[in-house]
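Posting here for the record, re: NAP.
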Amino acid sequence: MAKNVPVYKNFINGKWVSAKSGKTFKNINPADTREIVGLFQDSDERDVNDAVAAAKEAFKKWRLVPAPKRAELVMNLGLWMKKNKEKLAKDATREMGKVLNETRGDVQEGIDMALFCSGEGRRMYGETTPSELPDKFAMTVREPLGVCGMITPWNFPMAIPCWKVMPALVCGNTIVIKPASFTPLTVLNLVKGCEEVGIPKGVINYVTGSGSKVGDPLVKHKDVNMISFTGSTDVGRNINIAAAESFKKIGLEMGGKNAVIVMDDANLDLALEGVVWGAFGTTGQRCTATSRCIVHRKVYNKFLKMLIEKAKTIKVGNGLDEKNEMGPAIDESQLLKDLEYVEIGRKEGAKLVCGGKRLTGEKYKYGFFMEPTIFADVNRKMRIFKEEIFGPILSVIPVNSFEEAIETQNDCLYGLSGSIYTQDVNRAFSAMRDVHTGIFYVNAPTIGAEIHLPFGGVKQTGNGHREAGKTALELFSEWKSIYVDFSGRLQRAQIDTDALVKVK
Ligand code: NAP
Ligand code: MG
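Prediction output follows.
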C-alpha cells in the first residue's frame, strides 16, 4: 500500500477518535484506483452509541441557544465553505469522480443552503390566533426534535449533507451523521468546518462505517428522534420498516427514473443540450438524472441523430482535468451494473445506437469509465425503461401524441423529476399539471434544482416530506400549540360555549 496515506477519525463529542474496532477502511479515487484518498474508521454500534450519547447530552444546551445565534454559526459555516470552496471541490472529485465543475456546484449548493437557513434563524415563524374563550391567548411555536440521525449518499457528497445539517442546526437539533462509505472525506471536511466556526461539542457527531454496522444501529437507536436518509429506494424501505417500531420521524429521499418529453414543436437545439446534460452529467449518477427521453415521432429520427452526434463528443476522463466533461462510475460494481443493463437492453430488443462499452487503454485503465450510451426504440415493457440504472445510459422512446407522452412519463414507480420541451404554452401548462413528480421543468433538463424551493419526489421516491426551502423546517422541527389563559378561572373549550356572551 502507498505510504503517507492519511488516517481520518470519527468526531464524537468534540474530539477526533478512533473506532472501537481499531479497524479502518480504504477510500479510493474511482478515476485512478492507485490513489488512496484516505483510511477511515470502520465503526460499529459501540461508536454509534457514544455519538448518540454525546448528541443527547449536547441537546440540553443547544436547544436553548437562541435561534438567531445558532443561525449565525451556520452562516459562518457557509462563509468558511466559501473560503475553502476549491479544496472542498477537489477532495470531492478525488473521492467520487465527478468533474470539478460539478463538485464546485455541489459545494456551492451547501453554501447556498447555509446562507438560506441562516436567515431562518430570525424567522421560523409560528402563528398567533384568537382563542374561542375570553382572556385567553393561543399561538404555535417550532420546537427541535432532539437527536437527528443522518444517512447520506455519495453522489452529492457535500450538498445533501448540507440540506440536512444546516436546517437541523438552525432548528436546534443535534446530529449524528453517517456518510456514504465512498465519500467520507467530504463530510469530514464539513464537520471540520463546524469545529472551526465554533459549533459546540456534541452538537454534530460524525461516524464512518458501513450501512449495516453504523447506519442500522443509528436507525434503531432509542435516543435518536429522527432519521433523515437519502439513498436508494431499497435501503430506504428497510429503514422505514426498521424505524416503524419506535415511531421516530423519518425523512426519505430515494430513487428516480426521470424523463424529458421532447415535443414536435420543441426548440431541438435547446432540448439537445438539456437532454445531454441531464443524461450524462455526473455520469448519470444523479437521482434527478435524465434516464428516459420521450420524443414525438415527428421529430424522433432527427432528434435521435442529433443526440448520438453530441453524445459522441463528450470527453470522458479524470474529473480533476478541467478538459473532461464526464467522470467514472463510482466503483467496479456500479460499472458492471451499467454494462449489465447494456446487455439487458440489447436482449430486450432496444437498439444500441451509441456507446455501450467500458473504456480501455492507458487513459482509462485505473478507473471505472464507460462510454456515454444511448438506446433507441425503447418501449414501456423494457427493464431499461423502468429501472433506475444510475449510469450514463439514456433510453429514447418514440410517442405519437402529447397525451401518450404524458402517459409514458407517468408510467414509472418513481416520481422525482420531469421535464418538457415545447413552445406551446398550453401543452407546457398541461404537462405542469399532469406529470406526477415532485419537481418539474419546462424547457430545462431534469436536473438543476435550486435550494430555496422544496426538493423531493412522489411515489417510491419519497415518503411525503420535502428537503430544502422552507419545507426543510417542517422536517427538522415539530409544532407546539400553546394556550395561555389569563382569565383567572377554569375555562372549558367546547363546553363553556356561552363564554363570549358572559363577558358582555
Ligand atoms: P445507498 O446504497 O442506498 O446508500 C445510501 C446510504 O445508506 C449510505 O450512507 C449507505 O452506507 C447507507 N446504508 C446502506 N445500507 C444501510 C442500512 N442497512 N441501514 C442504514 N443505512 C444503510 O445509495 P447510494 O448508492 O449511496 O446513492 C444512490 C441512490 O441514492 C440512488 O438510488 C439515487 O437515486 C438516490 N439519491 C436520491 C436523492 C434524492 O434526493 N431523492 C439524492 C441523491 C441520491 P454505505 O455507503 O456504507 O453503504
Ligand atoms: Mg471513493
